[in-house]
UniProtKB/TrEMBL annotation:
This is MaoC family dehydratase. Residues 13-127 form the MaoC-like domain. SUPFAM superfamilies: Thioesterase/thiol ester dehydrase-isomerase (SSF54637). Pfam families: MaoC_dehydratas. It comes from the Bacteria. Gene3D superfamilies: Hotdog Thioesterase (3.10.129.10). It comes from Halostreptopolyspora alba. Transmembrane segments: none annotated. Belongs to the enoyl-CoA hydratase/isomerase family.
Amino acid sequence: MAITVNGLDELRNAAGTDLGHSSWLRITQERVDTFAEATDDHQWIHVDPERAKEGPFGGPIAHGYLTLSLLIPMFSELLNIEGVSMAINYGLNKVRFVEPVPVGSHIRLAASLGEVTDVANGVQVLVDGTVELQGSEKPACAAQAVYRYMA
């Protein structure tokens, strides 16, 4: 269930809040193939299930950047920000792809709000996120995302 904050003051006050976990999201071959089409990244470890069975991961895996891009929908399950005019994905401070994400597996986001600092016409928010891989002790991805919210 999402935490809701209304306006920049409530967002500032939420710094340090554990946002919990998103729901599990299944990674399908169709999603991987669609991402490959969108990015022109057709490496066989992603898009050729038969060849990938003989590869280093025993089957096809999601692109690291696909896993990273799924932070957006998973994060939207955790935090609802009202009373702002605009939200901007400002970038990333650190990203690590710790474990491959096999096609057919499930991932979810565990996140917390880090530092919230004032910027022109708004605030900058650091979000510490870990993409968990169901059944694995290691995460699929660890990232610190930077967002800006404007009044």
